[in-house]
């Protein structure tokens, strides 16, 4: 079996960068064993956040297209001017770079959302050039001079998740922005809607979430609505069913309540301490 062009090119990039291991979802995730596949999908947050760099192809619509520039390819030259010891060069306008990314198939797919948010570094290949996003503020674009690309995801910090410190972070606002962007994306299989975001939810809210609703803000995020006035129910071909109270049940961009709400009741259980202090009730998934 021949190796698809994009995977072949990615192998070449890793060789040139002296990177020993390459993770390719379609090859590394066991596709025909449901239990193993579930474990690996739930670990994608850890895989992306601990990877050295993520390679992104901005051209083409499938794995057969390749990564532009890995092998010989003509590209527009930048104008360079030398004034004594100073080198001046024309940089690729940031707004054009954003449009380049936004028109790509990569930026529209549901599965690529978490790799964009969780990866420490992105190396993006296009016919216009090679671009590098680093979420630590560094830059490694060498065609032919470094060009800083401001990360497109200001809400996310690669070490702790949300950009703000835990004391200042608003989990409801973050979730609202996250889900609204995510539900605009497309899926080859509608049943993947929850799997493809599990890595972000695990990394940000912990493993306690149910049908896409994090337990710490469950009462707030369940107050969602479909952005589209006319929308369809999400019905996966696999026969999977999403409960009607979950945002995953609707095939539409989703708007959630980003303002914290105060419940009319406080759930608690009596502790075994002698002073009978009340302890918060832990939400348990139904069997």
From TrEMBL:
<dbReference type="Pfam" id="PF06985">
    <property type="entry name" value="HET"/>
</dbReference>
<dbReference type="InterPro" id="IPR010730">
    <property type="entry name" value="HET"/>
</dbReference>
<protein>
    <recommendedName>
        <fullName>Heterokaryon incompatibility domain-containing protein</fullName>
    </recommendedName>
</protein>
<feature type="domain" description="Heterokaryon incompatibility">
    <location>
        <begin position="2"/>
        <end position="115"/>
    </location>
</feature>
């Amino acid at each position: 079996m021949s190796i698809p062009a994009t995977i072949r090119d990615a192998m070449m990039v890793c060789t040139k960068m002296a990177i020993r291991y390459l993770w390719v979802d379609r090859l590394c995730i066991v596709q025909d064993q449901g239990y193993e596949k579930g474990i690996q999908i739930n670990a994608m947050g850890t895989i992306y956040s601990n990877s050295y760099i993520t390679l992104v192809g901005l051209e083409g619509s499938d794995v057969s297209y390749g990564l532009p520039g890995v092998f010989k390819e003509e590209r527009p030259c930048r104008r360079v001017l030398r004034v004594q010891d100073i080198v001046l060069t024309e940089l690729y306008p940031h707004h054009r770079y954003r449009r380049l990314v936004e028109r790509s198939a990569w930026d529209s797919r549901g599965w690529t959302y978490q790799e964009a948010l969780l990866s420490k570094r992105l190396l993006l290949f296009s016919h216009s050039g090679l671009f590098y996003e680093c979420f630590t503020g560094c830059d490694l674009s060498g065609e032919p001079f470094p060009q800083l690309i401001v990360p497109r995801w200001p809400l996310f910090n690669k070490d702790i998740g949300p950009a703000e410190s835990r004391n200042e972070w608003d989990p409801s606002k973050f979730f609202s922005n996250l889900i609204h962007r995510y539900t605009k994306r497309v899926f080859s299989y509608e049943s993947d809607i929850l799997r493809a975001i599990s890595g972000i939810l695990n990394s940000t809210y912990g493993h306690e979430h149910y049908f896409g609703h994090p337990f710490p803000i469950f009462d707030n995020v369940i107050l969602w609505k479909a952005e589209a006035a006319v929308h369809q129910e999400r019905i996966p071909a696999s026969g999977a069913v999403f409960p009607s109270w979950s945002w995953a049940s609707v095939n539409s961009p989703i708007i959630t309540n980003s303002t914290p709400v105060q419940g009319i009741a406080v759930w608690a259980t009596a502790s075994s301490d002698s002073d009978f202090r009340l302890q918060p009730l832990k939400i348990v998934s139904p069997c």
